[in-house]
Amino acid sequence: MDYHELINKAEQTHKLAGSEIVALLKNEEYQEELAQAADRVRHVFVGDEVHLRGLIEFSNICKQNCLYCGLRRDNKKVERYRLSEAEILDFAAKAKSYGYKTVVMQSGEDMHFSVDILSRVLRKIKKMDLAITLSIGEKTYEEYKAYKEAGADRYLIRIETTDRELYEALNPGMSFENRLRCLSDLKRLGYEVGTGSLVGLPNQPIESLARDLLFFQEIDADMVGIGPFIPNGDTPLHNAKGGSFLLARSFVALLRLLLPEANIPATTAMETLDRNARIIALQSGANVVMPNVTEGDYRRKYALYPGKICISDTPAHCRGCISGKIMAIGRKISEHKGFRCHANSNK
Ligand code: 5AD
Ligand code: SF4
Ligand code: FES
User: Fold this and answer.
1) Which of 35, 135, 233, 293 gets the most CB atoms within 10 Å of its CB?
2) Mean pLDDT, residues 207-219
3) What ipTM describes this predicted complex?
């Protein structure tokens, strides 16, 4: 196989067959070239601006029991918390003061936040002229509709893996069908929809990762966030191997080649494995960073996986840190809300 030709084809046509994706993900020698092609496509389609999204982790209480996740309901070791409405609004106002144009409201599947409570919070945040991304798990069509009407613009819900059997084995009590239903309801309601997967799960061959990429392309995802699976000692997968940084990086590069217009974050989980990972990801196709704006001990308690970065840093420090790094590689911090671009779709 001529890998150089393959990368060229992906850069020009944004199309690859599953077997071609597998070949590229497996070939370590061409990783650099793959990342460079993705970096060029990123420049042409979404430009040099990096969008910063302020992340508010507003509750780590979750009714689900995903085998990989530290917030799973059976984990008795994690100290649970739920922010008050006043705290959420305070963190959102601070995100605004740091210049972030979007807040990402993320939590476990915490049943305390009824439609009434959360809609009220969303309406207040909306008055601050911020774009709002929700990341709160599986809800009904009616609930998604209510949140959209209250001002949510975007929604993140990872498919985690497109292997139905693996999905249902890793997420006891959850169904792959319902996950798909969530994605299609959100799209139908006019949200910008973000999804993504975990890279390096147990029993997840490269072929399965290739199918994930084709799935994101098929549903025309507006955003795709991926990260390496990092085994958590307080979960049933404590002895699993975990994903590698390099595989996650190639996955990001292929995402950009196949979905040239998508917003693609350089994720915190990647940085857990390599201290410069977010910058490397930004130079391999990514164009978004989600700095944490949650304050104090909440950061440590929102423990999806071990080794999470920035747990002792303040939001102000992270703002300066990440901006400095982004500018040092010659990129700009966006001053816009950073919706998914469609302008270049005929390219
Ligand atoms: N390693 C990496 N990412 C994880 N997530 C949950 N647990 C882990 C882990 N152990 C990710 C899931 C989820 C997101 C909020 O966090 O992909 O969608
Ligand atoms: Fe809950 Fe999400 Fe963790 Fe699953 S991945 S246990 S739904 S917080
Ligand atoms: Fe938090 Fe660098 S982004 S310390």
Assistant:
1) 293
2) 98
3) 0.99
